Amino acid sequence: MSGERLIFHIDVNSAFLSWESVYRLSQDPDALDLRTVPSAVGGDQKTRHGIILAKSTPAKRYGVTTGEPVAQALRKCPELILVPSRFELYVESSRKLIRLLEEYTPDIEKFSIDEAFLDMTGTIHLFGDPVQTADAIRNRIRDELGFTVNIGIAPNKLLAKMASDFEKPNKTHTLFSWEIPSKLWPLPIRELFFVGGSAQKKMERIGIRTIGDLAAADLDILKSHLGEKYAVQIHQYANGIDNDPVESRAAANKGYGNSVTLSRDVSDTDTACQVLLSLAETVGARLRADHVLCNSVCVELKDWQFHVQSHQAPLPYPTDSTSVIYEKACSLLKEFWDLTPVRLIGLRTGKISDHQYVQMSLFEDERSEKLKNLDKAVDSIRNRFGTDSIKRASFLQKDSIVDHASGKHKHLNPKNSHFQGDD
């Protein structure tokens, strides 16, 4: 390990479901532990609408997958117990996790609501052996917070993330440089971060079926089939190369955003705007929970060929209003989208500022005040009764493609460039 960094990747096992179970057991020690039965978070069992955001291990054995429609999951497992999402609970659970992890290193990158990278290079000498330290962290999280995590240990973020995705739940795995040939290269090509279904098919057509095949492939041949930038990136990943630093990201200096990989391609504005509304619901709630405002909005689209396009613009005044963010996002979408079918839609807000430093804008009017009061009322109801206790009428339609408050932080995933939900 001489000269190499030491990175831990912490990944909560079935985060949303685990956090829901911990909360229920804290209210009633005799309550059913949802982790022990076929269960899932998301959607509505009565209407069979929405998508699965998280599933238990017993549900996984029935073939239930994160991101699939509720109706499809219920066909696989008719006795599946569905519970509503509680975004505010997830935020608070995530904060508790980060506070615990801060005892081990100041260099923490919260990569999603249920994932974090820790750069342990400068502090591991305080704790001892890396694997024993990771095991101690896992045990503390289990005993003090009530849920379990996987921890991947590696010299960079890519390998740490790959390692944490090995056998689950509640495991520690290593993926050091000398372990790449035995642990990484035999895996199917689809298991590598940033390799989606389209790229997988293209590589399999030229005989690349494992990550090891990709690592040994001729880069010029890859470029001719996959494009130069993408070919270089995944070729480096296959060889375990990733120099990205662990970056502590202060909320007030960065932004708040969500994205969702859809179950089917979208090529019409109405559906795309409904997805943006779903994302605006969670982005707005997070801004209000952290008592900050945004000054800009950005919409991102990714089509089936991994082509990404985005468009951003400033807001007339700082806001945390779901409606204002949504309206601006739809306006941006209509300005730049040519209706090319897209599979991923993202919404980001930027130029974050604290409430106390924002002056009342001349542009704000009576409508703005009404929207603020509406958001406060909605947040209050959801905090008390759960995220699904109140939803906009547009999400009651039978053909709604997304849950009314779906989406997550941007983060790594071996199978997709963005998670569809919690795993």
Walkthrough of the structure:
It is built from 14 helices and 13 strands. The strands form three sheets. The chain has a five-stranded mixed β-sheet with strand order 5-6-1-7-8. Strands 9, 10, 11, 12 and 13 form a five-stranded antiparallel β-sheet that branches. It is globular. The two termini are 30 Å apart. By secondary structure, it is of the alpha+beta class. 38% of the residues lie in helices and 19% in strands. 42% of the residues are buried. Helix 10 (219-226) crosses helix 11 (228-238).
Give the helices and strands as they follow along the chain.
EHEEHHEHEEHEHEHHHHHEHEEHEEH
- Spatial sequence of strands, sheet with the most strands: 5-6-1-7-8
Mean pLDDT: 83
The count of β-strands is 13
> β content, as a range?
15-25%
Q: How many helix segments?
A: 14
Q: What would you report as the Rg, rounded to the nearest angstrom?
A: 22 Å
Note the overall shape.
globular
- Multimerization status: single chain
Coarse structural class: alpha+beta
Helix content: 25-40%
What are the low-pLDDT stretches, counting only 5+ consecutive residues below 50?
A: 356-365, 407-423
Let me know the largest β-sheet.
5 strands, mixed
Roughly how many Å apart are the termini? 30 Å
Pfam families: IMS, IMS_C, IMS_HHH_1
InterPro entries: DNA/RNA_pol_sf, DNA_pol_Y-fam_lit_finger_sf, DNA_pol_Y-fam_little_finger, DNA_polymerase-Y, DNApol_IV, IMS_HHH_1, Rev_trsase/Diguanyl_cyclase, UmuC
Protein name: DNA polymerase IV
Catalytic activity: DNA(n) + a 2'-deoxyribonucleoside 5'-triphosphate = DNA(n+1) + diphosphate
